[in-house]
Design a protein that fits this description.
It contains 6 helices and 7 strands; from the N terminus they run ααααβαβαβββββ. It is of the alpha+beta class. The protein has a single domain, classed as Nuclear Transport Factor 2, Chain: A (Roll), CATH 3.10.450. It is globular.
Length: 186
């Protein structure tokens, strides 16, 4: 229950701060500066290297490896994916929506099947620990996808990934894709 509340709070904070993150230079704690105690093997659980795991996620998504997506995603009704709504559901849900549990994985898989390509700015990818068993990665990305009738032109997004430590190792609990608003020219 504690993890669920932390994740819900993290998601709300990320959405509330979207404009500030997109328009301002933010000083997150670099992943390399993460407390080593949080990344070492403890209690028989695998170690967590946020940089390695985020790069692995991008590789999996860009390859369209649906089996690995299912393996890396947390199997919980609290898992969430927030992103572009499929065309058939826009009238009901709006252009962007949240999906939970198995629906989250299904939506992510639908996008991955749509000729997805993600190009992160790895120099700006940062991970912070919200608790010893919850971490959050912030990544500015360029996304090219033809999902839900989108023109496949690259789009700037902020990808937020929440990780949770489970009995099966670290899993993705949340993926939030937020469009970065264009900054008006002065």
């Amino acid at each position: 229950m504690k993890i669920r509340h932390l994740l819900a709070g993290a998601a709300l904070a990320a959405i509330a701060n979207m404009g500030m993150i997109a328009c301002a230079q933010t000083n997150f704690i670099p992943s390399a500066a993460v407390n080593p105690e949080q990344t070492n093997t403890q209690n028989g659980k695998p170690s967590f290297d946020p940089d390695r795991e985020y790069r692995r996620l991008i590789e999996i998504e860009n390859k369209g490896d649906l089996t690995s997506i299912r393996q890396i995603f947390w199997k919980s009704p609290s898992a969430v994916f927030i992103g572009k709504t499929p065309s058939a559901q826009v009238a009901k849900l709006g252009n962007w929506a949240g999906f939970w549990g198995d629906d989250a994985i299904a939506e992510l898989e639908g996008i991955v099947r749509s000729n997805l390509h993600i190009t992160p700015d790895y120099s700006r990818v940062k991970t912070v620990f919200l608790a010893k068993d919850v971490a959050e990665t912030y990544a500015p990305i360029e996304l090219t996808v033809s999902f839900a009738g989108l023109d496949p032109a690259p789009r700037s997004l902020l990808q937020i990934v929440d990780w949770v430590s489970t009995d099966d190792g670290w899993k993705i609990a949340t993926i939030i894709a937020l469009p970065i608003p264009l900054v008006a020219a002065k």
